[in-house]
Amino acid sequence: MKRKNLLRSILLFLLVVCTIKAQAQDDSLYSIDNPSPELRLKSGSLLSRKQAVFDIESLIYNLSEIHPNLFSVCGQGAFLQMVNQIEAALPDSLSTLQLYKAIQPLVVRIGDGHTSLFFPYNDAFKKDTPRIPLSLEVGSDNAVTVSFSLGNKIPEGAQILAINDVTARQMIERMLDYESGESQAFRMQRVRNDFPALFFLLYSADSYKIEYKEPGGGKPRRITLAPCPNHELFALKKQREKRAVAAPESYSFRLLSEDKVAVMDFKGFNDPERMKVFADSMFTTLRENNIHSLIIDITENGGGNSEVGDILFRYISPRPFNQFGKELARVTPTTQRLMDWKQNVGWYYMEVQDSDMIRPLTEKEGHFKGRVYLLTSNRTFSSASSFAWAFKVFGMGKVIGEETGGMNVCFGDVLMYRLPVSGLKASVSYKRFWQYGADENDIHGTLPDYEVPKDEALARAIEIAKRL
Predict the structure, then answer these.
(1) Strand, coil or helix: what is 257?
(2) DSSP state of 118
(3) CB distance 56 to 87 below 8 Å
(4) What is the pLDDT of residues 424-445, one digit of tens each?
(5) pLDDT at site 7
(6) Residue 323: alpha-carbon gap to chain centroid
């Protein structure tokens, strides 16, 4: 879109928003975010239909006030029609979890992985909440398996075929409606993470008729299990976690000395000051050990602070770089209220200039002279996906694995908002980003140079590094 047309669209949208705001708020004490006393929720009470509608309308209003392009994926008509259908189907009373169940699919329709409702774990899982007496997980092949069960009624590793006549595939397909994201592959990764909570939300029952296969295969077996109290399932989980290996740090590295290859496990973009120390130490070690190839693994990286990536890039980029080419931010009075900092109301548009490019280190300063490989997956998101995009665009090395879950044109930088009655928490983007060189008419994730399943990416990278 040309700049002139963009500004015209912005002015028109601002006029519409101002009109909405004038209609939504009057001069009284109470507003779209401040319900009157009779609408406030008493501790331990269910929501009335009127309270639920108030929360939904508050959410829609705040989404329209914060998000830079709310209807870019789902058209305004289809979106508001879904709002009407949700409100019409509300019961006379409902729990916070039931409200989440009703409206999260609406938020998912926005098509923005950063804009979502948070699952209300504290409201859903009380001490005696009845749950299926199994812990279930989803593998990369989308098979649902048992990680443990109370009383070992079903062996660990058994594959679930169906529960109460609903197949594992049908469960997963329905769960996708509850996971925000720009691509189905990324949303599928979120289903894998959230399967136990989403199963509880969608498939809780008074008993569970389970069809499964033993880990070694064979004929399907069937068993019917009664629910168990949440605290029993939680206690067994904690007991198993004590025996498990501690969670890995955000970034670490190891040497494969016999191959003159190093592998950096990069789990999260956080703590820029620590990354400065870490990067200096790692590249010093690589030089001292004559390591010719570095493999950076971001297959399990969901993002964080992009500045962390810039610090690492200075050691490996062959030329000046920047992760982003353009940025658009929208600041309204609502945005201001939710910010931890102050910024004037308006639209802010930025294009990267030559003076904004970041200079890599010189060889004397510690620039790495070896080859670099980057491992990616559908789970690579947010700052991790912009890292992958810049890595490829600026010729820092070869990308191996799967297309990233984050897109080259995307929304981001979130603000947190709580629905005023239920207290459900939402994250909402207020910026749009174009990664460096991205084409508005060709939106996709970072495409690998060598496309392989993420579980095979490391072995493939080592193989390539050894023969070059």
Answers:
(1) helix
(2) P
(3) yes
(4) 999 999 999 999 999 999 999 9
(5) 41
(6) 19
CA gap 345, 337 in Å, rounded: 11
Confidence (pLDDT) at 26? 44
Distance CA(465)–CA(468), nearest Å, equals: 6
- 29 has a pLDDT exceeding 90: no
Q: Which amino acid is at 122?
A: N
pLDDT at 467 exceeding the cut of 50: yes
Cα separation, 251 vs 167, in Å, equals: 38
363: which strand partners?
none
Q: Residue 409 pairs with which residues in a beta bridge? A: 434
Question: Strand 371-376 and strand 293-297: pairing?
Answer: parallel
Q: Answer for the pair 390, 424: CB distance below 8 angstroms, yes or no.
A: no
Q: Contact, 325 vs 351, CB < 8 A?
A: yes
Q: How confident is the model at residue 25 (pLDDT cuts 50, 70, 90)?
A: very low
With CA atoms as reference, report the closest residue to 406 among 444, 352, 354: 444
- Interval 372-401: pLDDT, tens: 999 999 999 999 999 999 999 999 999 999
| Closest-CA residue to 120 (of 428, 414, 422, 420) | 422
The owner of tokens 């950063």 is 114
pLDDT for residue 238: 85
Find, among 115, 318, 80, 97, the residue nearest to 204 by Cα: 97
| CA gap 303, 433 in Å, rounded | 14
pLDDT tens, residue by residue, 172-186: 999 999 999 999 999
Q: Name which of 110, 107, 113, 115 is nearest 183 in CA terms.
A: 113
| Length reported for the chain | 468
Distance between CA atoms of 309 and 384, rounded to whole angstroms? 8
Alpha helix segments (H runs only) across 90-220: 96-108, 121-124, 168-175, 184-203
Helix or strand holding residue 308 (H, E): helix 306-316
**From CA 2, how far away is CA 84, in angstroms rounded?**
35
